[in-house]
Amino acid sequence: MRELILDTETTGLDPAEYRLVEIACIELINHLPTGRTFQRYLNPERAMMEEAQRIHGLSDEFLADKPKFAEIVDDFLEFVG
User: Fold this and answer.
1) Nearest-angstrom CA–CA distance, 64 and 9
2) Is the pLDDT of residue 79 over 90?
3) Which contiguous run of DSSP H or E holds residue 10?
4) What is the pLDDT of residue 15?
5) Per-residue DSSP letters for 17-79?
6) Residue 1 CA to its chain's centroid (Å)
7) CA 7, CA 10: separation in Å to the nearest integer?
8) What are the residues whose beta carbons fall under 8 Å from the beta carbon of 77, sequence distance 6 or more?
9) Across all residues in the chain, what is the average pLDDT?
10) Taking the model in full, what pTM does it have?
11) Which residues have a Cβ under 8 Å from the Cβ of 29 and sit 6 or more positions away?
């Protein structure tokens, strides 16, 4: 059985307003890690809420040169597919 563990970090706590700033996955087969992983930092194209930055430590400056979600979505879908 294949399982994916997904972890995300966002710009804030309100689901209607937040944007992803990091997405990561690990693949398990029969509950055991396969070694296949996916991880990307993302440019959210908006300012980080102070509360969110305190939680994950990702700043606007660090994320400024990272790809936008639209630029990595095909790689992400290929991984989860």
Assistant:
1) 15
2) yes
3) strand 2-10
4) 76
5) T--EEEEEEEEEETTEEEEEEEEEE---SSPPPHHHHHHH---HHHHTTSPPHHHHHHHHHHH
6) 24
7) 10
8) none
9) 95
10) 0.90
11) 1, 2, 3
Which amino acid appears at position 67 of this protein?
P
DSSP state of 81: -
How many CA atoms lie within 13 Å of 41's alpha carbon, on the beta-carbon side? 12
Place of tokens 């997904």: 6
Q: Measured between alpha carbons, how far is 53 from 51 in angstroms, rounded to an integer?
A: 6
The helix/strand/coil state of 80 is helix
Count of alpha carbons within 13 Å of 80, Cβ hemisphere only? 12
Instruction: Note the Cα 24 to chain centre separation in Å.
Output: 5
- The tokens for 7 are 């972890």
